[in-house]
Amino acid sequence: MTGLRMRTAIQLAAEQAPWPEHVSWVVEAERLGVDHCWVAEAWGGDAATPIAGLSQHVERMTFGSGIFQVGARSAANTAMTALTLQHITGGRFSLGLGASGPQVVEGLHGVPFARPLTRMRETIKVVRMAEAGERLAIDGEQIRLPLPGGEGKALRLALRPPTGSDHPPLPIYIASLSPRMLALTGEVADGWLGTSFVPEGAASSFDALTAGAQRAGRSLTDLDLCQGAEVAFARDEADLAAMVDTRRAGLAFSLGGMGSADTNFYNDAYARQGFAEVASESQRLWLAGDRSAAASVIPDEMVLATTLLGTEEMVAERLRVWHDVGITHVRLYPAGDTMEERLETLGRALDLIPA
User: How many independent structural domains does the chain possess?
Assistant: First the structure.
């Protein structure tokens, strides 16, 4: 059980709303007391540009890339972007990295998805070298700087991160689901960006995170453990039933659509957390083209286990469960058709964060 209040965060993506709405959202979220804002990238807008802009409209809120895909940028460009954002935000930036999957990395960026674990480790090494002001020289298995046989030489970046006691080293988070990537997260990262999380099945992730941390002489408590979920407050049982039913489609997409038939890290994660049969059947139906059936096989139990839906008492209890298993940082996805409704939901959820 953790002894500190969980940090709170929101998450957005550039394509989800007009720019003025994003500005209003972060300004109001900071006013309500939210600590952090993660900006997604996926296959929509980039994450770096919104962070640079939004950070100028708030004073206290910190920001993070949630996530930069390590196959989408060269390692040096990832370092350049991260240090630039540290410079623009005055040290209020965290670098969130993820491997993504073959559909996006190979389909959108045209980069082989081969050996994502190695690419992640070597990318982080390059970022740390750049941050330290070292020349970027690495003879890795995925990254080789300078290019062998070429005319280039190892360079150091001219831009350095803010220094001093008010500006600690650049925090690096890894979005990980597979056991090997979780272990790498525990070994080399400052935090874990998790998803598809069932607190009752936390050991399936925490064991790997702990094993990696121990390789580096650390413990699980040295990591900021960040998890996210939809939050919505039900007026009555009928309202809750409708919320649960709506959420099934999103879970079916994760189980069947977020990856290929052979590579779906989300499906594997849910399977390890006690929902193997449901994950397998939903994926089978999704890949067969019956998306309605893929959603219908997902039980209420699974929806409620992975979200923050229900009465205030139910949401408060789920947040306590998250806190007690060790989650230190919660990303809230508040429900609502308008910004006013989302802000109301967000404010109610913030009042329930365990002390």
Answer: 2
What CA–CA distance (Å, rounded) separates 195 from 275?
15
Instruction: Please indicate, yes or no, whether the overall pTM of this predicted structure exceeds 0.70.
Output: yes
The answer to the question of residue 2 being in a domain is no
- Output the CA torsion 179→184→187→189 (10° steps): -120
CA nearest 116: which of 130, 125, 105?
A: 105
Residue ranges of the chain with per-residue pLDDT less than 70? 1-3, 162-167
So what's the pLDDT on residue 1?
43
Is the domain of 68 the same as that of 88? yes
Tell me: do 346 and 239 sit in the same domain: no
Residue 13 lies in a domain: yes
Provide the residue range defining the domain that includes 250: 235-310
Spatial neighbors of 30 by CB under 8 A, at least 6 apart, are 58, 59, 60, 61
Tell me how long the chain is: 355
Burial class from Cβ neighbours inside 10 Å (0-12, 13-18, 19+) for residue 277 reads exposed
Q: What is the pLDDT of residue 163?
A: 67
